[in-house]
Amino acid sequence: MPDVLPTDVSDVEFKKWVAEKWGYKKLPMAGSTPAGTAKFFRTGDWAAKQPRLIVENCTSCYKCYFYCPDSAITMVAGEDGKAHPEFDMFYCKGCGVCAYECPGRKGEKAIIMEDLK
Amino acid sequence: MSKIAVTGDDAIAQAAKLVNPDVVAAYPITPQTIIVERFSDFVANGEVDTEFVCVESEHSAMSACIGASTAGGRVFTSSASAGLMLMFEIVQIASSSRTPIVCAIANRAISGPINIHGEQTDQLLFRDSGWISQFAETNQEAYDQTIMAFKIGEHPEVLLPVAVGIDGFILSHAIEGVEPVTKELVSDFLGGERKSTLRLDPDNPVSIGLLHLQDYYMEARAQVRDAQQRSKQIIIDTFKDWQKLTGREYNPIESYQIDDADYAFVTMGSGAGNARTAVDELRANGEKVGLIKVRVYRPWFGNEFSTLTKNIKGIISVERAHSFGSPGGILGQDVKSTLFDAKQTPYIAEYCYGLGGRDCLVKEWTEIYNRSIQGFNEGENLPYFWWGVRE
Ligand code: SF4
Ligand code: SF4
After folding, report:
1. Hey, where are the domains in chain A?
2. Which single residue of B130, B248, B283, B289 has CA 20 to 30 Å from B261?
3. A21 in contact with B at a CB cutoff of 8 Å?
4. Residue B34 sits in the same domain as residue B76
C-alpha cells in the first residue's frame, strides 16, 4: 500500500475526510493536509463571547484586523466611507484580542465583547 | 579497489562523501565525533556539493535536517550519547514527518556519571521512535550500511529516518582496512538525486506535521507502524542489490556456525567480533555453539530470528546496553518475546556487558558461555546478569 499524498486530496475530498472520519489508509501521510484547509475549520464553534463594533469610536486604525488570530476580521467601508471591522462568526472564536487591542477614540473602545446568545 | 585504512568515523564520513548529501546539519562539539569534522573538511575543500549547517545544538541539528528533508533534500547528520538526548524531541518528529534522514551514531554511554566510551544504550532509546535502527560490527560494515541507509530510508514504501550505529571508540576511533566503492557506483545505486514525493513546494502547497488530537493521532502513528513493517522487504532487497554490486553479503539478522549449533550467542555491533573468535575456540574444543548478530534492530526481524534459532537449545543474549528496572536487557526483551512463540522455547541467559566502553575479551566470552551452559544443564534459565561488574 503506497502512502497517500496531501496533493492527492481535493477540497471536496477533504470535506468528506472530516465528515466520514477517514482511517489511516486513506489519510495522507506524515500528518499532512492539502494547503488552505484551515478555511474549512469552524473555530467559531469555540466562542463563548462575540465582538460588537461601536462604529462612532472607530478610527479605522486597522489594529483589530492585524491582531485577530483567526483572520475573522475584514475591513469594510461604512456609511462614513471609512474602513471598519466586520466579524466573520464562522471563524471568530471570541478571544477578545481585537477588543483588548482596540485603541478606540478618546479612551472609548470601538469593540466590546458580549456574551454569545 | 585496494583497501583504505580508516577509523570507523572516517569510514562513515567517506561514505557520506560519496553520497554527496544536499544538506548536513550538525553540532560540532562533544559528544560529536570525527564523522562531521571530517565531512566539514570535504565541504571546505569543495569535494562535495553539500550545504553544511553548523548549528548551535543537536536539537537544532535535527530540526534543520527535517526542514531540509521536507524541502526534498538528501540529508545526513551525526551525533552520539548526550547529543542524541538533546536531539530526542525532534528525533520523534523526523519519523512522523516521514523524513528519510540518515544519522550516523558513534554509540556512547549516557551521562551520568560522565563517560564518552562505547555503549549502545543511546541508540537503543530510538527503539520506540519509528526510526530504522541498524548496528555495524566493522568499519567496512559502517561504510556500506551508511550508503545503504539512504536507499532504504528514501524508498517510497518506507520514507523513514535511519540510524546507523558503530560502537564508540571501539570502531569510531580504531583503524581498519575498508574496501571503498566509487562515486559512480553510489550514484547508480541510489538512482541519482533524491526523488521526494511529499515535500514543501510553492507550486503544490501542503502542510506537514499538523496537530493531531484524539480523533487523528492514532491513525498518524499507524502509518508509521505500517511503514516500519514495509521497510523489512526493502531492507532485504537493498542488501541484495548491494551484494550484487560489491560482493559483500548483508542480512538483517546474521549467523555464524549456526546450522548444527546447540547453543548460540546473540549480540549486536562490534562485540560480535570477539564472540565469533570465542565460537571458533569453543568449536575447537567440541562445543556446538554459534553466533547470531542482529544487524537491523528496528524493524525487528522476528521471523528470521525464529528460523535461525529453531533448533537451538540455549540462547546467550549479550548486549552492551542496559535498562534500569527492566526484566532483562533491551535487546534481550526482543529475543525473549520472539522466542515465546517458538514451538520449543530454548533456555535463555541474558547478559549486560561492557558499559561505558569496558572491554570484554575473547576469554570472557568463553567464560560467559561456560557459565550459561552450566545453568542450562541444570535445567534453568539464568537470571539477567551484569558481566564483569565488581561487587
Ligand atoms: S474576538 Fe478574537 S477571533 Fe473574534 S474577531 Fe476579535 S480577535 Fe478575531
Ligand atoms: S482597532 Fe478599534 S479603532 Fe482600530 S479599526 Fe479596529 S475597531 Fe476601529
Report:
1. 11-40, 43-115
2. B248
3. yes
4. yes
CB pairs under 8 A between A and B: 74
Indicate the residue of A27, A29, A33 with minimum beta-carbon distance to B98: A29
Domains in chain B, number? 2
For residue A98, which atom of ligand 2 is closest to its CA?
A: 1
Chain A residues with CB under 8 Å of B227 CB are 3, 29
- Give the cell for residue B299: 524493524
Determine, yes or no, domain membership for B138. yes
Domain end, chosen from B202, B221, B246, is at: B246
For the question of an ipTM over 0.95, the answer is no
Q: Are B220 and A2 an interchain contact pair (Cβ–Cβ within 8 Å)?
A: no
User: A43-115: what fold?
Assistant: Alpha-Beta Plaits (3.30.70)
DSSP string, B157-190: TT---EEEEEETTTTTT-EEEE----HHHHHHHH
pTM over 0.90: yes
DSSP output for A9-68: --HHHHHHHHHHT--TTTSBSTT-EETTGGGG--GGGG-SEEEEE-GGG-----HHHHH-
Q: Quick check: B216 contacting A, CB < 8 Å?
A: yes
**Cross-chain residue pair B223–A34, CB shorter than 8 Å:** no
The average pLDDT across B161-170 equals 97
The x, y and z cell numbers of residue B255, run together, are 549467523
What is the grid cell recorded at A77?
467601508
Q: Which residues line ligand 1 (CB under 6 A)?
A: A 51, 68, 70, 72-73, 87, 92-98
Q: What is the pLDDT along chain A (117 residues), one digit of tens a residue?
A: 568 888 888 888 988 998 999 999 999 999 899 988 888 889 999 999 999 999 999 999 999 999 999 999 999 999 999 999 999 999 999 999 999 999 999 999 999 999 997
